[in-house]
Design goal:
The protein has 447 residues and is an all-alpha fold. It has one domain (9-213, 230-442): MFS general substrate transporter like domains (Growth Hormone, Chain: A). The protein contains 21 helices and no strands. The chain crosses the membrane at residues 17-38, 50-68, 89-108, 114-135, 155-176, 188-204, 245-265, 285-307, 314-335, 341-365, 377-394, 406-427.
Length: 447
Amino acid sequence: MSKHWLDDLSVYREPRVWVIFTFGVISGFPWVVIGSMLSAWLQETGVDRASIGLFGLVFASYSINALWSPVIDRVKPWPFAKGLGMRRGWMAICTLGLLLCTLVLSQLTPASELWLIALCAVFIGFFSATQDIAIDAFRIESFAAHEARLQSAGAAMATAGWWTGYSGLGVIPFYLVGGDMGWTWSQAYSLMTGLFVLQLLWLLRVKESTRFSEVAPLTSQESFIRTLYQSVVQPIAEFFQRSGVGFALALLIFIFTFKIGEAFLGRMSIVFYKEIGFSNQDIAVYSKFVTWWVTIIFAVLGSYVNLRLGIVRGLLIGGIAMASSNLMFAWIAQVGPDTQLLLSAVLIDGFTGAWSTVAFVAFISLLCSRTFTATQYALLASLGNLARTMLSSYSGYVVDWLNGDWSLFFILTAVMVLPSLVILLLLRKRLTQLEQNYQQASTEPDL
């Protein structure tokens, strides 16, 4: 048993896994800019809950990025592709866009330029969602078919990296704004542009994915119908043909519903913290810094446990734990701004969120064909993001409908997880067989 344990952890000495970690950081960082930072900034300037909730629509690009994912698979990002390669080239273009939009955002004022702030946030969401297509494809292509342990470790490190970008780097603006430091939110946004510059410099150093399987590029001679079929219809059709229509539809419903409760909680969490009486420094320490380290630790442990239990059991246990952890926030709503209780809540929430996310990422990766990696992963991931963006954008209206009863709101977020767990139980036998077939195939050498 100890030998197996050491074998599982030895994968974290692989340099490719740590490159995936850094790309996870790059993926999570824009969520600070248009997520927690923006929510706190708007709340402090007097924007109402419903409007702050509607700002969640700026994340809509994450839900529909599958529509342009074929471009990332088939169009070279000239002139970047020549020097950086297909995946890194697209990452560089998107990082430049993120840098410029954040710089503009730092010059705006919510009181008089709210629509311009929303427009900048929409563009940031678009560039970030496009960048995620290339990052996810790079991660999956970084490992051979027989490297199942590395693929699982890659999912864990992608999760740990994402939370490092979101929570780890998210500590910085909350620590600087308010309190003794006295920074403004505009100044904090200016600082964020410097971090995008560092990301560009890192992209120049890493190597391109060596297992990228290039699909025939688009040409001017191709008809529109043929291009549409090869770029969009064929990847979707391959997924349904491989899985079967009924099973594929059930999988899509599960992916759509699994993260709904977590999304509603996350969309209103910063507003809740500030309304209940926590300071920006409390948010920086507990919601950001503590969550960061808890998530990294349990993302790695979650990867190990999921290897032992299997992805299906990991999803089931993680989903139950994720729903239960939401009840901790209902307790805080009853007690008030108790930092010890907040610490307990973020510890439990970080653990359950990391576990369920690692299993979820590994599960979606398992379903992707190597031929249409970017398109299929983007399709499945964007479906999961659809609930997190489109539906959770109404979370502010839900809190208002409940007359500001935060405790009842968090209880509802826990109940929202249950439908997906029922679907998972109904599909458990078929999914377990699918996982076993994948593990058996993964023991064969990559030719």
